[in-house]
């Protein structure tokens, strides 16, 4: 077994022992979707939403929320904890490089977000009759870019905060604005036009719009795909530049 594979298996065992993190990533987005779906008015078509129902718009939001939970609330405390406890420093003296540990954590949190996305889509379809994404390739690409931007943001937060406690505080502070930008409080499509335009400059607002476009059957606008891609590149560069192994 190669060293990166061994690290991945070990981190998977530890990851599965964290039911609290798994709940917020895998269960919470779908639970929120189910609660919203129980509101009668959310299941009625709305002329203001182009004949769509509010619950139709909240499936992509729930999918995106899973990536935000993984990137901001679950990943940063793990990385910061490893650094603060000296695990990364000790690994630097072994054949296993710290980068293997970081890659394993990112892969596991990304996989958990994908499971959550599938669960939200299935719940929307089976419980509330929400149509499956009509343009799967565009939907998958938008989801991938949204997830990468969330994980990149979490990595950047970990890089610039000195302690695990500071990382938790910073992640929580950033988390609530990102929920708004993703449309958790109000779906992006239901926002005033000016606010939609502003939100579209941020990765989660653009990703939410891209997911909705793909769900409706169209290829997402290149601008909505380009925004999270650009933010991902910028945040990864910042994380690499300022990340401290010890």
UniProtKB/TrEMBL annotation:
Segments spanning the bilayer are 21-42, 57-79, 100-127, 139-160, 167-186, 225-243
Single biological process term from Gene Ontology: response to antibiotic
Identify the keywords attached in UniProt to this record, alphabetized: Antibiotic resistance, Cell membrane, Membrane, Transmembrane, Transmembrane helix, Transport
Regions annotated as coiled coil: none
Q: Does the keyword Membrane apply?
A: yes
| InterPro entries (UniProt xref) | ABC-2_transporter, ABC2_TM, ABC2_TM_bact-type, ABC_2_transport
Q: Which GO terms describe its molecular function?
A: ABC-type transporter activity
**Membrane protein topology class:** Multi-pass membrane protein
**Which GO cellular component terms are attached?**
ATP-binding cassette (ABC) transporter complex
Chief location: membrane
The ABC transmembrane type-2 domain covers: 20-246
Tell me if Transmembrane helix is a UniProt keyword of this record.
yes
Q: Which domain of life is it from?
A: Bacteria
What is its subcellular localisation? Cell membrane; Membrane
Offer one Pfam family short name for this entry: ABC2_membrane_3
Q: Which PANTHER family match?
A: DOXORUBICIN RESISTANCE ABC TRANSPORTER PERMEASE PROTEIN DRRC-RELATED, TRANSPORT PERMEASE PROTEIN
The Swiss-Prot or TrEMBL record describes its family as follows: Belongs to the ABC-2 integral membrane protein family.
**UniProt-recorded name of the protein:** Transport permease protein
Record the organism: Actinomadura livida
According to the entry, what is the taxonomic lineage of the organism? Bacteria, Bacillati, Actinomycetota, Actinomycetes, Streptosporangiales
């Amino acid at each position: 077994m190669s060293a990166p594979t061994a690290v991945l298996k070990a981190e998977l065992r530890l990851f599965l022992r964290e039911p609290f993190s798994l709940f917020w990533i895998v269960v919470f987005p779908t639970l929120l979707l189910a609660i919203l779906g129980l509101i009668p008015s959310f299941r009625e078509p709305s002329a203001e939403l182009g004949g769509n129902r509010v619950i139709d718009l909240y499936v992509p939001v729930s999918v995106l929320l899973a990536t935000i939970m993984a990137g901001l609330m679950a990943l940063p405390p793990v990385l910061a904890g490893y650094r603060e406890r000296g695990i990364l420093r000790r690994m630097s003296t072994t054949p296993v490089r710290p980068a293997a540990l970081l890659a394993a954590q990112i892969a596991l949190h990304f996989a958990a977000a994908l499971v959550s996305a599938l669960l939200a889509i299935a719940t929307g379809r089976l419980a509330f009759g929400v149509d499956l994404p009509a343009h799967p390739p565009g939907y998958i690409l938008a989801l991938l870019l949204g997830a990468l931007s969330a994980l990149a943001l979490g990595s950047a937060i970990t890089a610039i905060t000195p302690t695990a406690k500071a990382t938790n505080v910073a992640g929580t502070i950033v988390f609530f604005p990102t929920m708004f930008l993703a449309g958790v409080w109000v779906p992006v499509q239901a926002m005033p036009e000016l606010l939609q335009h502003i939100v579209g400059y941020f990765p989660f607002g653009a990703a939410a719009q891209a997911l909705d476009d793909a769900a409706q059957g169209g290829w997402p606008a290149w601008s909505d795909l380009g925004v999270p891609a650009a933010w991902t590149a910028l945040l990864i560069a910042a994380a690499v530049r300022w990340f401290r192994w010890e």
